[in-house]
Structure formats: structure tokens, C-alpha cells
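S1.2 Input.
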Amino acid sequence: MTASQGSAERGGGSPFQGLSGYWSGGGTVTLRNGSTERIRCKATYAVSSTGAALNQSLRCASDSYKLDISSNIIFQGGGISGTWSEANHNVSGTVSGRASSGEISAAVGGGAFTASLSVRTHGNRQSVSIIPHGGTDVASVAVSLSRG
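S1.3 Output.
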């Protein structure tokens, strides 16, 4: 049995299984004015032994943009809920949505900021998409990460 199989069994089918560890990569930030910037990101995931709780840290930076998000999420009955905060812009709020094996779809919000969040994981590759709906000059963030 591999370590990931043991984690999957302990996680009882949790969509968070297989996320633990350090991920890095890059992507683009698209601003509302149409300009784009390349961005580099590092993510760290810590999954509880039951697989029901996830602590996540995502740090990204481009030439003019920085993002430092921390979140704490719980999985129960196919749904997720939790809290998030972003240190550079001093905003925080809630997370809610659905999760299944390899995919998380959520709505995040706090104050004037709202966004759709999608995380898709396949093996050691992950794509993260954030589409803000208000409260920022960012139109989208798209990042591809690899575990390493």
C-alpha cells in the first residue's frame, strides 16, 4: 500500500485527500482593464487525519500584484464551508460550496468582495481559478500548480 492509498482510506473518500503538502507554479492575473501579468504561486495544504478539515495557504506575486490567502475549510455531506483571509488587502470572509474527488467549487465573499473559486486536482497537478465578481480591479486569476 502506498502512502497516498493509506491517506485515502483514512480520509473516507474526502475530496481533500491527496492535497497535503507543498505545491508551486505559475499563471496569470487578468485585470479589468484587459492587461495581464504573469504570476508565481506557492501553496501549502494541511489535511486533518480524518480528511474532513483543510488548512490552506496560497501566496502569489507578480510585478505589481500580491496575494496572500489563508483558509480553513470543513467538508461535510458533499458540501464545504469555512473562512478565509487575505493579508495584503486586509479582507476576510466565508467560503461555501461543493466538493468531490479532485474538484472543489466554491463561492467566497467578505465585505464588498465576492468571487467564484475552482480547484481541480489530478495526481500531482492542480489548477486554481478565481473569478472576482466585485470589490477588486482583478478580473481573474488562473494558476497551474505542481506538487514538489
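S1.4 Remarks. The chain is about 5% helix and 65% strand.
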